[in-house]
Specification:
Blueprint (H helix, E strand, L loop, with lengths): L6 H7 L53 E3 L2 H9 L6 E4 L7 H4 L3 E2 L8 H6 L4 E5 L5 H8 L3 E5 L4 H14 L3 H15 L7 E8 L4 E2 L5 H8 L2 E3 L14 H6 L4 E5 L10 H4 L5 E5 L1 H5 L4 H22 L1
Parallel strand pairs: 1-2, 1-4, 2-3, 4-5, 6-8, 6-9, 9-10
Antiparallel strand pairs: 6-7
Helix pairs in contact: 6-7, 7-12
């Protein structure tokens, strides 16, 4: 793995949208800003979008860095890369690895950052994400720190961003090893064995749509995501009448962002679909968590197919 980025990487992201519906905060009115003009393949150059060259800050050549992660998945990944001393800040949702993060300063929620506290920690690098974080807050951080902005909408883009982060923090080989292990564990895309909707929030009802990492994880594991038929946003709110008529093998109820549990099963148990509680981290966390998720998702596929054959 080489720490170089081609000019075409920038073009791939010039139309990326900021999505203010996060998977870690209660839903708010869905909004979309103008096209995000700061190519997330690179570090943000200026608040006003100055032209960005290849890896302009050469952060991977630094020694000990002070890193703040605003993304739970990437926080865990940084520690798994061996950066226990470098990570100095995290959000309250960055809960893994538990035995390390409990001693790391919290800088607010993913969309409610404490900018003054972040600045006081004097970071060399802040890792953010288009979906997880608020655009204006990330730009505010850029006034005093380098920012590595990521955009994860698929399994492949998750691995690409993992590579970029590893390069930026001087852990190229460790990153390459993680990526190889993840690719080996995930294998190839499975044939479709079931259909499902994936509910991310209860009230209002929200599902994972077509342009999401969750959707691609489902596709990769052979689950047809029927939530993709609603095109009004990446996490659409299905109209009540359309939701009632949606027939799928399963309604997947994850452990996060809304903490679905057994008490919610009856609400989603209909003649049209059968509810199933699932591990939300396996579907929505990327980075090193993908390695652990592979075994879980394989086992889940067995449960889904076996139950269907019995019924």
């Amino acid at each position: 793995m080489r720490c170089t980025f081609s000019p075409t990487d920038t073009q791939n992201y010039t139309n990326a949208k900021w999505n203010f519906i996060g998977l870690r905060d209660p839903p708010i009115q869905q909004r979309q800003k103008d096209d995000y003009k700061y190519a997330p393949t690179h570090f943000i150059a200026t608040v006003h979008g100055a032209k960005v060259g290849r890896d302009p800050y050469h952060l991977h050549t630094f020694g000990i860095m002070r890193i703040i992660s605003l993304v739970p998945s990437w926080t865990e990944y940084l520690f798994d890369l061996g950066l226990e001393k470098e990570v100095v800040g995290r959000t309250k949702f960055c809960i893994r690895p538990e035995h390390f993060v409990q001693d790391i300063d919290k800088v607010g929620g993913t969309k409610n950052l404490q900018i003054d506290k972040i600045k006081a920690l004097k970071p060399d690098l802040i890792i953010a994400n288009i979906e997880e974080n608020d655009r204006e807050q990330v730009l505010a951080c850029r006034l005093f720190s380098k920012v590595l902005l990521t955009d994860v909408r698929s399994v492949e883009s998750a691995l690409k961003e993992a590579e970029r982060i590893a390069c930026a923090v001087g852990k190229t080989e460790a990153g390459a090893q993680w990526i190889r292990q993840i690719r080996d564990a995930w294998g190839t895309i499975r044939p479709i064995h079931s259909s499902a909707t994936y509910v991310v929030w209860k009230t209002p009802l929200m599902v994972a749509g077509h342009d999401t990492y969750i959707n691609d994880v489902m596709r990769w594991r052979g689950i047809q995501n029927l939530g993709g038929k609603w095109k009004n946003g990446r996490y659409p709110q299905p109209p009540n009448d359309e939701w009632a008529l949606t027939k799928s093998d399963w309604t997947l109820l994850p452990s996060e962002p809304f903490p679905f549990s057994e008490k919610h099963l009856s609400e989603f148990d209909t003649s049209q679909s059968q509810p199933l509680l699932v591990d939300g981290e396996a579907f929505s966390w990327y980075g090193s968590r993908m390695l652990q998720a592979a075994n879980y998702l394989a086992g889940l596929a067995n449960v889904m197919t076996k139950s269907r054959s019995e019924n």
